[in-house]
Amino acid sequence: MAALFYTVSLAADEPVEIIVVTATNSAQSWLQSPASVDINWVEQTGLLFDSAQLLQGIPGLQADSRANFAQDTRLSVRGFGSRSAFGIRGIYLEQDGIPLSAPDGQGQLGSVLLDTVQSIEVLRGPLAVLYGNGAGAVISLNTRKPGSSKIVSNLAFSEHHQQQQVQLAAVGKQQSLQLAAKQFKTAGYRPHSRAAKDQAQLNWQRSISDTLYFNLRYDWAYDPYLQDPLSLSPEQWRDNPRQTVAAARLFDTEKTVKQQQISASLVNDSNTPFQLALWHGERDIAQRLAFTGAAITSAGGEVQLNRQYQGIKGQYQLNVAAPLVAVLGASASQTDDRRFGYVNDFGQRGALRRDENNQASNLDGFIRLNYQASSQLSWHGGWRYTDLAYQINDYFIMGANPDDSGQRNYYQQALALAVNWQFNSQLAWFASAGQGFETPTLAELAYSPDSGGVNLQLDASTNKQWESGLKWQNSQHRASVSLFSIATNNDIIAASSDGGRTSFRNSSKTLRRGIEALWHYRLSATMRSELSSHIMQARFNDNELQGKQLPGVAAAEISWQWHYQPMITVPLQLTLQSHYRSKVYTDDNNTASAPAALRFNFNISSQQQYQHWQLRQWLRVDNLTNKSYVGAVVVNQANGRAFEPGTGRELAAGIALGYQW
């Protein structure tokens, strides 16, 4: 009779040697990288429905969950992206080297199948600007690669959510095939907040030779309904954070999203490595907003958008003369948006108010230089040139509604220089400086504050930044501390909002200074602790808003996780998490703020294996103390409803059964 045995390991445990890629565009150890870069390893258990769940514990990164599936997760890194009205802006997003950010710098993670992600690498600081437009930071997702053939079925549920998932992997000598499908539904934490998400991913990998690999991936996502309960005013939140404003039901605020993408990449890991990637996708959005948009100059209260996008990029490593290595690369990408706006006749489609075709085209070229001056000293630098073209064709020209057609080109460049000095095998110092840029998005170019026509006067904002830090790593500890300073010019801010039409202008300078710290400590074979924090002063730095705190940015955040296995021979792990965030202002003038909050989560998980069968179970309690807190703020909300309530205490459980061969 076969024996029952246990597989016991700390969930999402990081490897002994951590390899990072984003800092210098080539693989190197974490200690040798000349930048603030960290990796989160994703646990294979739990209800994963929000990218903020995967990004906690990264210093300098503020991941705010809105608990509102009609709105994307709100992310900011060292203040970049903090003032985005929707989606993710100011942060370059990619998965397996394929961009998730559009040419205009706007991106989102709502369509990513999070359960297939193995790790997330986050690069902060000056070297991030070498990724191009709007790259105040880089978030790089890496898909889990199967080690063996297996099939796994997952079931998870909580008071509000339920999730079913199946994953299949077939692994051969030279190739592997992965298929994952997931269905998620929620009744919502508040009235009128129901949501459903269906996702699937097909991933084929083949080794053409010992050093040449081909990867083909197809991603599909369909969100049939994402109800929007709308944000609350501070008074409404204090009175009852679980309420929904009447306008949500009156206008039946809701969003539907469909997206599919196919991508292919070819990677060579020889002495002269190269990479080539192509992608093509389509995204459809239908959304009803909380107003009619009936005015002839309005864009309407119902949005219909079809986006076609595609791109290609490549890079080649040239060994110039040892110890100098150059990486040369280029990319081209394009989005084509067909956008309509209609009157929202209280949940029914009304008259046409917008009919446009918007196109963004991007051409980039870059060079990266890595110079290993000695066994201890290395230099890294780079330069990137961007040619970004916008074309807006307006087909709705009627009466007082002007022709919003126009075009604009942006010619920008970014550069950075970094140094790393390794004192010994455990301790290293790094420093870097750089200059980057962020162009207006298509949405920000759409309307002028003066004429109502296209806003071609908007310029790109620029930033100059530096950072310096120390890294320390041995068999039990991994720690880092870094100081940074970022000065931005020509920041883009909201100028006016009228009838559903928002216009923008260049105005503000900002100055952001801070310190980040991380400490991972393995106390024993059964216990480890992870602590991360940042303190940041992020303020406007001109006469208009001098000294005011940037809205949407917390001055301090602290995250702590404690993992414990009571006994080596018992397949049980306990995890306690805590997260503190200081108050967050909601507008440029700092007239209101979301209060500081401290929350705790607790998780128990176990895993057993019998011959080819594997069984995993988990139980989790989020917000242990049932703390009322604001999950995210809506920056510069004209109607004052700026608070997105966080969720209360919630118990969740799940089970996974797998067969491996």
Automatic annotation (TrEMBL):
The record's annotation in InterPro entries points to: Beta-barrel_TonB, Beta-barrel_TonB_sf, Plug_dom, Plug_dom_sf, TonB-dep_rcpt-like
Q: Which SUPFAM superfamilies match?
A: Porins
- What residue ranges carry the coiled-coil annotation? none
Span of domain TonB-dependent receptor plug: 50-136
Gene3D superfamilies listed in its UniProt record: TonB-dependent receptor, beta-barrel domain (2.40.170.20), TonB-dependent receptor, plug domain (2.170.130.10)
What PROSITE patterns does the record tag this protein with? TONB_DEPENDENT_REC_3 (PS52016)
Indicate the principal place this protein occupies in or around the cell: membrane
Location comes to: Cell outer membrane
Q: Name one GO biological process term.
A: siderophore transmembrane transport
Designated name of the protein: Iron transporter
